[in-house]
Design a protein that fits this description.
Rossmann fold, single chain, 6-stranded parallel sheet, Alpha-Beta Plaits, Dihydrodipicolinate Reductase, domain 2, binds NADP nicotinamide-adenine-dinucleotide phosphate, 13 helices, 3 domains, alpha/beta, binds L-homoserine
Length: about 450
């Protein structure tokens, strides 16, 4: 068997410790499949003395992680620190500049700096891999780049954040409070260091922008993702959705639209109402699922654990095995985004005004005469047709009432206009919440 692939591991938190456990537990089968052993030579984190539940004595320790790629005993660096900039980005740059391969699970860094890093990696002919950055343990990047590479995709969409899915499905099953369920997701190692990235939709938007780049051969455009998180969803919304035949899921969706002969990119992360009979309605806990609609493959569904130490480590180590095989074969490093960065297209953001669909709109209003008439008048004036409307009596001692409606199919712009017309109304005690209904 050939010489080991020598690995520097930066970050020994949830995922980093998972990678060490996996490489140790499955060493023999990994060596067989990779054609050579994977050997961690050096590790780094902030606190050398922290108890991580793993034995670090076999590995050298590096205080300054940024220079790990320059070490003579390292072939590949694995970055599991996190953060779009700071030490993670400095490490990525120095590693590639030193002519070493890089594996990362860092979707924030790839969403913000992926093109620069990929360009550097292409120029240096070194591998840059980030399977674990999207949908944890699901090999969806490999799936789109390789298994479904021959297809044109009409839509790529799915559940891309395990923390949000865990929160929504647990609230649905138990009726428990948002904050308590978030704390549980954090304790299980699903959440980002700052969980606002999860619950405000940013993490899912990072992942969507990476998937869209791969699916559509587009330059990553994270800033163009229209992003709404789950923090405004009430337990009452989940109950209303249930009574109407839906669950609520945070969905990331990308597609292209042809407008006056120009191809534009639509990217949105938003909580949706998902009909009970849609496959995504049954995706619970920290599970992720990605649907890719290929013109020859038909609907492909990739599903599995989207967060946590084991599943994420599985994706990281799969990238390392690929690198070990490629280096073993003396192969080309390849283009990180499937096509070279210079050939990725800069697509304009699609205009969402004309999009058609059905929506759920929820108002929390003062319990007094005329309020419902005010809301329905705004719907009428904006041209929104209401399919069903539920008004729940006093839901707390403040005399607030919840009014939820589902619209008929119509332009999203009309719903936005109705909500805008009600802005500042003294009848509303909270800002309205709009969630689109996922179309089959
Ligand atoms: P984590 O548990 O917070 O671990 C981060 C590690 O990086 C820790 O070992 C920490 O050191 C080290 N670190 C942080 N800042 C540092 C600095 N300035 N200098 C040196 N070391 C530093 O994070 P994680 O959950 O493992 O996530 C790591 C990466 O994987 C992130 O990019 C995350 O988005 C991504 N990811 C996570 C999951 C998941 O399920 N957790 C799934 C997919 C992708 P100390 O331990 O000494 O503090
Ligand atoms: N915080 C992320 C999530 C980790 O909950 O999905 C996996 O990327």
């Amino acid at each position: 068997m050939s010489e080991p692939l020598r690995i520097a591991l930066a970050g020994l938190g949830t995922v980093g410790a998972g990678v060490i456990r996996l490489i140790e537990a499955n060493a023999a089968l990994i060596a067989r499949r990779a054609g050579r052993p994977l050997q961690v030579t050096v590790v780094s984190a902030r606190d050398r003395n922290k108890d991580r539940g793993i034995d670090l004595s076999p590995y050298a320790w590096e205080d300054d992680m940024v220079i790990m790629g320059e070490r003579a005993d390292v072939d590949v660096v694995v970055e599991l620190v996190g953060g779009s900039d700071g030490p993670a980005l400095a490490l990525a740059r120095t590693t590639i500049e030193a002519g070493k391969g890089l594996v990362t699970a860092n979707k924030a860094m790839i969403a913000h700096h992926g093109l620069e890093l990929a360009q550097k990696a292409e120029a240096a002919a070194v591998p840059l891999k980030f399977e674990a950055a999207v949908a944890g343990g699901i090999p969806v990047i490999k799936g789109l780049r390789e298994g479904a590479a021959a297809n044109e995709f009409s839509r790529v969409y799915g559940i891309l954040n395990g923390t949000c899915n865990y929160i929504l499905s647990t609230m649905e099953d138990t009726g428990r409070d948002f904050a308590a369920v978030l704390a549980e997701a954090q304790a299980k190692g699903y959440a980002e260091a700052d969980p606002a990235f999860d619950i405000e939709g940013t993490d899912a938007a990072h992942k969507l922008s990476i998937l869209a780049a791969i699916a559509y051969g587009a330059k990553i455009d994270f800033a163009a993702v229209d992003t709404t998180g789950i923090s405004k969803i009430l337990a009452a919304d989940i109950a209303q959705a249930d009574s109407l035949g839906y669950v609520i899921r945070l969905i990331g969706m990308a597609s292209t639209e042809n407008s006056n002969g120009t191809e534009r990119l639509f990217q949105r992360v938003q909580p949706h109402l998902v009909p009970f009979d849609h496959p995504l309605a049954h995706v619970d806990g920290a599970t992720n699922a990605v649907v890719a609609e290929g013109n020859f493959s038909g609907r492909l569904l990739f599903q599995g654990a989207g967060a946590g130490d084991g599943p994420t480590a599985s994706a990281v180590v799969a990238d390392l095995i690929d690198i070990a095989r490629e280096m073993e074969r003396g192969g080309e490093a390849g283009a990180p985004f499937s096509v070279p960065v210079a050939e990725l297209v800069a697509m304009d953001r699609a205009d969402t005004g004309h999009r058609m669909g059905r929506s759920y709109i929820r108002f929390v209003v003062a319990d007094r005469p005329g309020v419902l008439a005010e809301i329905t008048a705004a719907m009428r004036d904006a041209g929104v047709s209401i399919e069903s409307l539920i008004q729940k009596g006093r839901h707390d001692e403040d005399g607030e009432v919840l009014v939820a409606m589902v619209t008929h199919e119509g332009p999203e712009s009309a719903v936005a206009e109705a909500v805008r017309m009600l802005e500042g109304s003294a009848s509303l005690t909270r800002a309205p919440l709009v969630m689109h209904i996922l179309a089959d």
